[in-house]
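Reviewers of the previous submission asked for a worked example of the structure-prediction workflow described in the proposal, so we include one complete record here. The input consisted solely of the amino acid sequence. No template or homolog information was supplied to the procedure at any stage.
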Amino acid sequence: MSNGDVTGLTVAVVGLGYVGLPTALALSDAGASVVGIDSSPARLRAIARGAVDLLPLHHAQLACASAGDRFRLTPDPTAVRSADAVVICVPTPVDARREPDLTALAAACASVVEHAVPGQLIVLTSTSYVGTTRDLLVEPLRARGLTVDEDVYVAFAPERIDPGNEHHTPERTPRLVGGAGPHSTRAAAALLAPTASLVRTVADPETAEMAKLWENTYRAVNIALANELADACHSLGLAPVPVIEAAATKPTASCRSTPAPESAGTASPATPTTCSGSWARCGSRRPWWPPRSRRTAAGPRGSPNAHWTCSRSTPSPRGAPGCS
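From that input alone, the workflow returned the following structure tokens.
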């Protein structure tokens, strides 16, 4: 695997949901032989029939892949043994207490570790706390007697899929990669290069994990703020959209967030408690999360689902003025 050429490689994609299936199709489209693994027979049957929720581009990829001999579906977790690389795309939903439920992720990682073979690359994409890659992959592999970055290669590359948004498909979106060593980083970057607009490598899995939580938190907080201000506009008899468009004309402090009934992604509602869990692991004081930030799914009264864009922000020195 070099220079992003995956032709001839066998890649196992574990979890074929809204992240895993487009990932599998992108790798197949790039020339890899793909083994799609999912524990749900119903999901596998739906994919085989083409009865899945995909963008037209990805439906065309699915039809092409299904007609060829480089795309195979199976519920058998031992199929990872035949793969050169394994990409884990398992969801991390929230439970009834709004806490991240890592049951499926932990089970998938344990299965991959059990069946991992020397020379294999394992890439985790699921949103979780900082340290997940080491806890669920690096350390268990080491316990099996496999030296990471020598015998096997491990990296975290957070998914950035925006479901249903044809303007931000995975192929048009940059990808972060943080490996558990330089060889792991290079291998994962080469694997994912054909599936992204560019690949940005970072120092380690923890940096990539925190970057994912950072972007999700920024997104959730801004949507929550937009929801609060939209409620205020309704109370004052104002339409929120013209106010947002007017405020967005300031070039030095533009953050064009629009109200939405959801926090725009399955991982976003879990982000505050995921961050808090990361803080607690290292003994730091947990940050305070405003209640509205924890329940952005509530949305403003009567608001339609809407697309959002936000500008880049950097921390200000303590006591320094913010936007003005």
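The first strand starts at residue 10 and ends at 14. We consider this example representative of the routine output the project will generate in years two and three.
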